[in-house]
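Exam revision sheet. Question 4 asks you to relate a sequence to its structure. Input first:
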Amino acid sequence: MGCKRVWAALLGAWLAGPALAVFKCTGSDGRVTYTDGPCTADSRVQAIDVPPPLSSREEAEARRRGERLLDEARILDARRTADAVERQRRWEAERQAETAQQREPGRDDADRWGAVYPAPIYARRWPPVKSVQPKPKPVQQERPALIRAYPFR
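Answer key, structure tokens:
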């Protein structure tokens, strides 16, 4: 049984080894390529350290943390939505109270709106309109008719 475990561990290390070798190749034109194989001769090579794959226990812990964060986000979203609904409800109640107060009989406009004095209105004086005479069109002199020469042969 122990021999099978050793072979399984060696096989896993052998399969995971090439997958962990990642290279960043920057070509002469500036293009960047990530590959697990060799880069071309005219490119600059930089090795990238890739962390080992997570164990099943670490993966389960990461999922639990992710689910917990999602639950917290959902709770926060629900709380924000409830707060927005409550603010909207209070705003509408205040608007209804204001309109009801404005409609009370016996209150005149001066009390309700306060004293509002309109700006004085001044008559606007326009400059006198000058009549514009159209310019006369130049008279074209008649041109004498062209005389055609009689074709003599």
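Marking note for examiners. Residues 1-52 form one domain.
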